[in-house]
């Protein structure tokens, strides 16, 4: 869509009324309000609530799991969820409902995660059901799952920083020292202020193998060990190597998922046992019911939800003579039985949000885990050095045990025992305290020899640990060994099947077999598209759009119509309205860049209905040239979905107009001039990338502003601006002829 004209800025600074401490109000500049009130809130949401960190957890997850760990629920039995929620409020003051919802998502019973962290008992709902509510916390029980041992194994070794809780009454870990890349193993989603995060889950064994591969060889091909995501709801992944590599490289893109099904010949029905992670059984059933009601699907006689304790099951009864494969292809195209998972690998690294690819995430995790292991070894070295120091003091006592006993017996005051031992044997206070605390029965040569014998072993162990701590290569060996142990102990087979040989797509002509129906096509400037059935338009309210957006195209057509979408990257996407879901005027519609899988940063410029490809498209450029390209240039014989080089890239584009027949247009320049001309003066060009012909003669520093149909321009005296030959300079625009655009395209 063409960009909206910039509104004139007001010289007066907007002032907001701010309520004072005593109820009075004062005016405050809006910029100051944003800086003092809104920005701290936005940063708190980003850093302390919605975006996961390198350990794969948000603060709410971390506080809950750490509380359960301190309650002894890693090795003990289950306790009531209400007890856990109450204890967690010491770290997380956001209320019991929010804490319990966090526990539900981490629970085994909910099936949100491939590797749940909460071993649950009771009704925790299901991630694949919208209406199956979880039971209250007073009825359910929980404890930590065995895999949590990998989260807390090193936490008592000073591997992570401990910080104050919200009221500084206790300490909590800033991160959990996970021994595997949980950030990619556990699915995570969060919406912050101005940014979001959506991380899909990958198979634990495959992630560990990929991490080991990258540590051994930075040029390791990730796709060889990590073929694709693995979701807890199973389903089938439609493998696309180019799209997968792009996601692994940039952290953005989408995976295509579809349900897993089988045909039961005895009952002439289809059983669906696994669905895409991004949808729910109720959503699927509602959509199928809507399609049956509208007459778009006539092959189904009944559909039932037969989900039970055995797992998910949707049963579809077929009418006699229906081909189940063709029906499923149609359902995949028209319902959420085939859906996409949009990836946005946005992770907090040292308090800063960053969108990273899989390789970069694993590199950051490896660097962080290396520091954790180094801190663990340093802690172990300190403890062993402290023990060695005590034993060396005990070794000096071995020289004369009787002297030590004599010093203690002859000392009159208890407070002078330690100083006298220090003087008598030349040891420090710590060593003297250790000696003074030895039981009387242990003051014998055998005990002391047995204790001091460990000195050489401790010295060797300290030297070995210090050598490991100073060597990155040896630290990596430790991490690799731990990853291999985790993969062996907790790894499990993939739940999501990868389809490398994609099923045969429904031929294009079969789309024609679906009976068309009248619809209203609505497109907005920001790239949203709605396909609204006429039955919904009769009593439709005003079209809903995002704030700052506007409707630029609204016309009646057929549900089978083709659509051309031109973008600011000189590309054209071809699609059909059949591929879009019916919408209501009260909804925003579908976002075209996401629906058509456009490239990052690519924006919609114009939506065109080509019809029978008999008209033409005008591309109006900033340098005053206009290219007339027949619509037939975009009518490809193959089912290509994207056309590159859709128009010239030699000059910035100012407007696109699609026309069926010749007519008069009004062209405007940035220096306040306008001209009216007939499109019959524009010679058609057969190539899409033609630079066009000069239409508007521009003065120095002036450019073409826009071109619109004459009837929508607001010009009251066309004769003043009309020209017979091209190019022309036009005439100075009078105030009464100023541009007034309505709901038509620019």
Based on secondary structure, the structural category is: alpha+beta
Quaternary organization:
single chain
The strand order across the widest sheet is: 16-11-10-19
Average per-residue pLDDT, rounded, comes to 87
> How much β-strand is present in the residues?
15-25%
The overall number of domains is 4
- Give the CA-based shape: elongated
Put simply, the count of helices is 21
Give a quick account of the main beta sheet: strands, pairing sense, barrel closure. Answer: 4 strands, mixed
Please compute the radius of gyration using only Cα atoms. 35 Å
Highest CATH level, the class of the largest domain: Mainly Beta
* CATH architecture classification of the largest domain: 6 Propeller
CATH topology value of the largest domain: Neuraminidase
Annotated CATH homologous superfamily of the largest domain: DNA gyrase/topoisomerase IV, subunit A, C-terminal
List unreliable stretches of 5+ residues.
Answer: 1-13, 741-746
């Amino acid at each position: 869509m063409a960009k909206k004209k910039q509104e004139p800025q007001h010289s007066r600074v907007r002032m907001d009324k701010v309520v004072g401490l005593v109820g009075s109000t004062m005016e405050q500049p809006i910029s100051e309000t944003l800086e003092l009130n809104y920005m701290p809130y936005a940063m708190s949401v980003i850093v302390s609530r919605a975006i996961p960190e390198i350990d794969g957890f948000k603060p709410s997850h971390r506080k809950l799991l750490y509380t359960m760990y301190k309650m002894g629920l890693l090795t003990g039995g289950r306790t009531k969820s209400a007890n856990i929620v109450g204890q967690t409020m010491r770290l997380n003051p956001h209320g019991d409902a929010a804490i319990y919802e966090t526990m539900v998502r981490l629970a085994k019973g909910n099936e949100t995660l491939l590797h749940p962290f909460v071993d649950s008992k009771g009704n925790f709902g299901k991630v694949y059901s919208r209406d199956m509510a979880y039971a209250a916390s007073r009825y359910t029980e929980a404890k930590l799952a065995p895999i949590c041992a990998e989260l807390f194994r090193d936490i008592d070794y000073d591997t992570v920083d401990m910080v104050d809780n919200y009221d500084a009454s206790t300490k909590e870990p800033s991160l959990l020292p996970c021994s595997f890349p949980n950030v990619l193993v556990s699915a995570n989603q969060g919406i912050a202020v101005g940014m979001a995060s959506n991380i899909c889950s990958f198979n634990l064994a495959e992630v560990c193998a990929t991490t080991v591969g990258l540590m051994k060889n930075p040029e390791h091909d990730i796709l060889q060990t990590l073929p694709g995501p693995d979701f807890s709801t199973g389903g089938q992944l439609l493998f696309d190597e180019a799209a997968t590599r792009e996601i692994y490289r940039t952290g953005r893109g989408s995976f295509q998922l579809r349900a897993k099904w089988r045909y039961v010949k005895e009952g002439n029905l289809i059983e669906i046992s696994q669905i895409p992670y991004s949808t729910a059984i109720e959503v699927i059933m509602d959509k199928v019911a809507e399609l049956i009601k509208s007459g778009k699907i006539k092959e189904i006689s009944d559909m039932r939800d037969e989900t039970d304790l055995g797992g998910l099951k949707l049963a579809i009864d077929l009418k006699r003579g229906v081909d189940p494969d063709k029906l499923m292809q149609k359902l995949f195209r028209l319902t959420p039985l085939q859906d996409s998972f949009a990836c946005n690998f946005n992770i907090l690294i040292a308090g800063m949000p960053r969108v990273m690819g899989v390789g970069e995430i694993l590199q950051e995790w490896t660097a962080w885990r290396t520091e954790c292991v180094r801190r663990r070894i340093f802690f172990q070295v300190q403890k062993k050095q402290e023990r060695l120091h005590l034993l060396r003091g005990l070794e000096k006592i071995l020289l004369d045990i009787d002297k030590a006993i004599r010093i203690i017996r002859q000392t009159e005051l208890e407070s002078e025992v330690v100083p006298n031992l220090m003087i008598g044997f030349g040891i420090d206070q710590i060593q003297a305290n250790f000696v003074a605390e030895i039981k009387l029965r242990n003051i014998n040569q055998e005990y002391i020899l047995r204790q001091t014998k460990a000195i050489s072993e401790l010295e060797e162990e300290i030297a070995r640990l210090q050598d490991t701590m100073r060597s990155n290569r040896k630290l990596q060996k430790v991490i690799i060994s731990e990853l291999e142990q985790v993969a062996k102990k907790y790894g499990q087979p993939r739940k999501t099947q990868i389809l490398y040989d994609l099923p045969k797509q429904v031929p294009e002509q079969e789309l024609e077999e679906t009976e068309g129906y009248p619809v209203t096509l609505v497109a907005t400037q920001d790239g949203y598209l709605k396909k609204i059935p006429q039955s919904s338009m009769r009593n439709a309210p005003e079209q809903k759009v995002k704030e700052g957006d506007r409707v630029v195209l609204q016309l009646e057509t057929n549900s089978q119509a083709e659509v051309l979408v031109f973008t600011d990257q000189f590309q054209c996407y071809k699609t059909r309205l059949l591929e879009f879901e019916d919408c209501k005027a009260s909804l925003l519609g579908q976002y075209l860049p996401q629906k058509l899988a456009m490239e990052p940063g690519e924006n919609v410029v114009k939506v065109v209905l080509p019809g029978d490809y008999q008209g033409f498209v005008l591309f109006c450029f900033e340098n005053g040239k206009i290219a007339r390209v027949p619509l037939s240039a975009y009518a490809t014989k193959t089912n290509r979905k994207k056309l590159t080089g859709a128009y010239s890239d030699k000059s910035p584009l100012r407007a696109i107009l699609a026309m069926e027949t010749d007519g008069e247009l009004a062209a405007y320049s940035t220096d306040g001039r306008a001209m009216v001309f007939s499109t019959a003066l524009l010679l058609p060009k057969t190539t899409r990338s033609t630079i066009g012909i000069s239409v508007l003669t521009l003065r120095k520093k002036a450019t073409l502003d826009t071109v619109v149909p004459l009837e929508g321009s607001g010009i009251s005296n066309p004769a003043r601006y009309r020209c017979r030959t091209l190019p022309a300079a036009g005439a100075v625009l009078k105030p009464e002829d100023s541009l007034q655009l309505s709901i038509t395209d620019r």
